[in-house]
Write a structure and sequence with these properties.
Blueprint (H helix, E strand, L loop, with lengths): L2 E6 L2 E5 L11 E10 L2 H7 L9 E2 L4 E8 L11 E4 L2 E2 L8 H4 L10 E2 L11 E5 L4 E2 L6 H4 L2 H14 L4 H5 L19 E5 L5 H11 L4 E6 L2 H10 L3 E4 H7 L9 H17 L10 E4 L6 H8 L5 E4 L12 H6 L3 E4 L5 H12 L5 H4 E3 L7 H9 L6 E5 L2
Parallel strand pairs: 11-12, 11-14, 12-13, 14-15, 15-16, 17-18
Antiparallel strand pairs: 1-2, 1-4, 3-5, 3-9, 3-18, 5-6, 6-10, 7-8
Helix pairs in contact: 1-14, 4-6, 4-12, 6-7, 9-10
């Protein structure tokens, strides 16, 4: 079969005769149609993260069921499907993480396109229980971004945004997770970094979770324009903010740097005029370590920062005192548990997510995957690119 195979750092070959996947009885064989391009693909390509070559990359896949294993359930040949990038590999979700409901953190987690072969290939075999059917009214060149770019921020907003003391002091805490009565409804949210994952975060916060204000912060005006279309009520170019004040933030240190960051944080929260300085949730999608101190400054007391973007290096200033004084909760998040995938598919089918705005590039094919990765790297891809697997 045709496949995008990584043999080592920057050694990406488009093979035409790679061996087909071997199906288990509980698997379905899927013909990949489109692959969403993620910065993780770029990290693998550049050798920033270790992997075992040869590796077929691609972990945001939409496709069509071609074959159904003997014990596979719930799917038929011809069904349109999406595959989550991370799914449980333990027996019957029996590990301690899966038992706690964290199927996204399974002890034997399978990460396609990283730990095992991915979907930037003609075919991929996946357990039927972790393959999600999607209505054929959703175009496959848009559906491919659901598995990661949409589901990761969905989980972050739905399940990682609620402060512990709120849960403890609510009579029926479960209702705070339901869309209709979700904690974020009517709240103020700040999203740092509105690229491939930040865009869906803005969109979901505004349209699905019905936040009152969604402030998008980025350093590129064209990304901020897209954020507005996706539902951001306010946009801030942080680079322009510092430049206007003649602050060379990268060269500042110590108290001067802290003062500059604090000024930007005040500027961000001042936008939320009705609830002056009340920022209920900060979602950091930037993948830039320097954003963390800004997130700490921006978040209001007793609230949460959710870390969605993966920073390439640790944060140098952890600001323990500020975190304590502000009674902040810092929540990590990772992919999306299996029991939230159906809700996402339903949201998409009900047109509560603007996939058409989020997928900004549909012109790449597998043969041009390397170009696509390079374009992503230099900021030429505004939202998400869908790679046609053909
Ligand atoms: Zn990804
Ligand atoms: Zn498990």
């Amino acid at each position: 079969m045709k496949a995008a195979v990584l043999y080592g750092k920057e050694e990406l070959n488009i093979e035409t005769d790679f061996e087909n996947p071997v199906m288990k009885n509980s698997d379905v064989l899927i013909q990949s149609k489109y692959g969403g391009l993620c910065s993780t693909d770029r990290s693998l390509y550049r050798g920033f993260v270790p992997f075992q070559p040869p590796l077929i990359i691609g972990h945001e896949i939409s496709g069509i069921v071609k074959e159904v294993g003997k014990s596979a359930k719930g799917l038929d040949v011809g069904d349109h499907v999406i595959i989550p990038p991370v799914y449980p590999g333990c027996e019957d979700e029996s590990c301690s993480s899966c038992k706690e409901g964290l199927t996204n953190r399974c002890k034997k987690s399978v990460f396609i396109g990283h730990g095992v072969h991915g979907g930037d290939a003609e075919f991929i075999a996946i357990p039927s229980r972790y393959t999600f059917k999607i209505n054929q009214s959703v175009p496959l060149d848009e559906a491919c971004i659901i598995p990661d770019a949409v589901s990761t921020p969905f989980h972050a907003l739905k399940s990682r945004s609620i402060p512990p003391h709120i849960l403890r002091n609510t009579a029926n805490p479960k209702q705070l997770f339901d869309q209709k009565s979700h904690w974020l409804h009517g709240k103020n949210i700040v999203v740092f970094g509105v690229g491939g994952v930040g865009g869906p975060t803005v969109n979901l916060a505004a349209r699905y979770f019905k936040a009152k204000n969604v402030v998008a912060v980025d350093i590129f005006d064209n990304k901020l324009e897209l954020a507005k279309k996706l539902g951001a009520t306010h946009t801030i170019n942080s680079k322009a903010f510092y430049e206007d004040k003649n602050l060379a933030i990268k060269e500042l240190a110590g108290k001067e740097k802290a003062k500059a960051i604090s000024e930007l944080a005040k500027h961000i929260s001042s936008y939320l005029t009705e609830d002056k300085f009340q920022v209920d949730c900060v979602v950091d999608c930037s993948g830039v370590p320097e954003t963390f101190p800004l997130a700490v400054e921006t978040t209001s007391k007793n609230r949460i920062i959710v870390q969605v973007g993966w920073p390439p290096k640790p944060v140098s200033e952890f600001l323990n005192q500020k975190i304590m004084d502000k009674y902040l909760t810092i929540n990590g998040t990772w992919a999306c548990p299996m029991n939230e995938m159906k809700e996402i598919v339903t949201a998409v089918e009900n047109k509560q997510v603007d996939l058409n705005l989020l997928v900004t590039n549909k012109d790449y094919t597998l043969d041009r995957l390397e170009n696509a990765i390079q374009d992503l790297e230099v900021g030429k891809i505004l939202g998400r690119a869908a790679i046609a697997i053909k």
